[in-house]
Design a protein that fits this description.
This protein is mainly α. The chain is built from 2 helices and no strands. The radius of gyration is 18 Å and the shape is rod-shaped.
C-alpha cells in the first residue's frame, strides 16, 4: 500500500518520492495528530472545570 501511495504521489508531483521517506512522514504526522488530540482533551477538561 505504501509503495502504491508513493508511486501515486510521485506521478502527481513529478518528483521522486521514496517509500521510506513516506513512512517517516506518516509516522510523524500520526504522532503530531495524537499529541494534538491529547492536548485538546486536557485543555478541554481544564476549561470545563473552570466554568463549573
Amino acid at each position: 500500500m505504501m509503495a502504491a501511495l508513493a508511486k501515486a504521489i510521485s506521478r502527481a508531483t513529478r518528483t521522486n518520492v521514496d517509500v521510506e521517506t513516506l513512512k517517516v512522514l506518516v509516522i510523524f504526522s500520526g504522532a503530531g495528530l495524537l499529541l494534538s488530540l491529547v492536548v485538546a482533551m486536557i485543555y478541554g477538561q481544564a476549561v470545563s472545570a473552570a466554568l463549573f
